[in-house]
């Protein structure tokens, strides 16, 4: 029986009485926070990273920024919002790269690689795209212009691009959006083709990897089958795709096992894809997250990092934020769900942070 299971039973038994004792957490700063990037790189991975949203108040928080800016803690970042279509092309043909540039500038200060995110997605798409009436040709033209401009503007400042984001639903069907409705399922392949062509115009030195990024693709099932089909289709059309991003938004009560993760990672690897853990966070279904919830959360973080460390094709891992105060899943807007990162809002550490370190070191989980 795992510590988590034991404590869940104990918590239930003691529900009416005293609570299970909890160890005192560390209040983290940049001098105490574990060197996750150095640990990952010591084991041959490219990086351990965290997203940054330069439109959020997190960037005004000195403790947050000193942790974020420490290269041995985070060696990679992804703009949480500012390279999405609504930011970069708010009107047809009017491009604005200023906010995206802020992330590139920040990343360079601490030598971080940038996963640029994203080019074609259902969400955060301006209404001039989603609500206009297009022909297949006119929408393909707009999509091509958008992809080409973003890729050529940022160039080699991007280690990789998420070319298409979340194209498949949980049941394996295609996500409903204007691209699907007007162009058909092939919009995905066209997007990858245009992205590859844009990179080619940058010359031989531009080595920018092209990724498909999605959620709930960490365990076998209809969605993974459909995503594998989608990858086969892209690959049949040309040498357009380099990798797959497993977003990894999980919860304390529903998360993949190491065995599930290794099954799907082997399937992606068999297609020749580089694998990244791109947006790792684990929300507690009810908040404030109970001790038992925190241990479930620790197990979820552990499983994801452990599975990546064990798989040679899994090259890098990143949190979708590292402090509950700034993570996108806030209880007030998510039916009470939240507390999804390794640190409380006041920088106190959770068992999940210990679990991440143990997984990176190849140790068993002492808090799961
Ligand atoms: C989220 C951002 O973190 C939020 O700030 C924004 O309001 C919505 O989008 N999948 C993705 C990310 O690929 O771009 C999303 O980011 C989270 C889910």
UniProtKB/TrEMBL annotation:
Annotated active site: 279 (nucleophile)
Gene3D superfamilies reported in the protein's UniProt record: Glycosidases
GO cellular component, one term: extracellular region
Stretch forming the signal peptide: 1-19
Chain ranges of the GH10 domain: 30-359
UniProt GO molecular function: endo-1,4-beta-xylanase activity
Principal EC category: hydrolase
One biological process term in Gene Ontology: xylan catabolic process
Pfam families: Glyco_hydro_10
Reaction it catalyzes: Endohydrolysis of (1->4)-beta-D-xylosidic linkages in xylans
Subcellular location: Secreted
EC number from the UniProt entry: 3.2.1.8
Pathway assigned to this chain's UniProt record: Glycan degradation; xylan degradation
Keywords: Carbohydrate metabolism, Disulfide bond, Glycosidase, Hydrolase, Polysaccharide degradation, Secreted, Signal, Xylan degradation
SMART domains: Glyco_10
Keyword Disulfide bond assigned: yes
Superkingdom of source: Eukaryota
PANTHER family attached to this UniProt entry: ENDO-1,4-BETA-XYLANASE, GLYCOSYL HYDROLASE
Family as reported in the entry's similarity comment: Belongs to the glycosyl hydrolase 10 (cellulase F) family.
The protein's name in its UniProt record: Beta-xylanase
Species lineage: Eukaryota, Fungi, Dikarya, Ascomycota, Pezizomycotina
């Amino acid at each position: 029986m795992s510590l988590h299971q034991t404590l869940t039973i104990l918590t239930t038994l003691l529900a009416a009485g005293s609570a299970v004792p909890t160890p005192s957490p560390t209040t983290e700063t940049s001098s105490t926070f574990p060197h996750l990037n150095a640990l990952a790189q010591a084991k041959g991975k490219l990086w351990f990273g965290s997203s940054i949203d330069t439109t959020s108040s997190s960037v005004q928080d000195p403790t947050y920024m000193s942790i974020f800016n420490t290269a041995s803690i985070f060696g990679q970042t992804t703009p949480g919002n500012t390279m999405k279509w609504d930011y970069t092309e708010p009107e047809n043909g009017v491009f604005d790269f200023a906010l995206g540039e802020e992330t590139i500038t920040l990343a360079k200060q601490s030598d971080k690689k940038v996963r640029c995110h994203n080019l074609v997605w259902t969400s955060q798409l301006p209404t001039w795209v989603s609500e206009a009436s297009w022909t297949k040709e006119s929408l393909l033209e707009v999509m091509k212009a958008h992809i080409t401009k973003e890729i050529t503007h940022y160039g080699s400042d991007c280690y990789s691009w998420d070319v298409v984001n979340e194209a498949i639903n949980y049941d394996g069907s295609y996500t409903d959006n204007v691209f699907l409705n007007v162009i058909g399922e092939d919009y995905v392949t066209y997007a990858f083709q245009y992205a590859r062509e844009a990179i080619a115009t940058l010359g031989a030195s531009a080595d920018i990897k092209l990724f498909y990024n999605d959620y709930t693709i960490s365990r076998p099932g209809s969605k993974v089958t459909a995503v594998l089909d989608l990858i086969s289709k892209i690959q049949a059309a040309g040498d357009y795709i380099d990798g797959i991003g497993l977003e990894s938004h999980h919860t304390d009560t529903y998360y993949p096992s190491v065995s599930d993760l290794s099954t799907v990672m082997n399937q992606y690897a068999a297609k020749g894809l580089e694998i990244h853990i791109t947006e790792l966070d684990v929300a507690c279904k009810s908040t404030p997250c109970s001790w038992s919830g925190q241990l479930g959360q620790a197990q979820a973080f552990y499983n994801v990092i452990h599975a990546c460390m064990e798989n040679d094709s899994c090259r890098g891992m990143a949190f979708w934020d590292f402090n509950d105060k700034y993570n996108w899943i806030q209880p007030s807007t998510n039916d009470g769900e939240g507390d999804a990162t390794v640190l409380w809002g006041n920088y106190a550490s959770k068992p999940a942070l210990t679990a991440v370190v143990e997984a990176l070191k190849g140790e068993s989980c002492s808090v799961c």
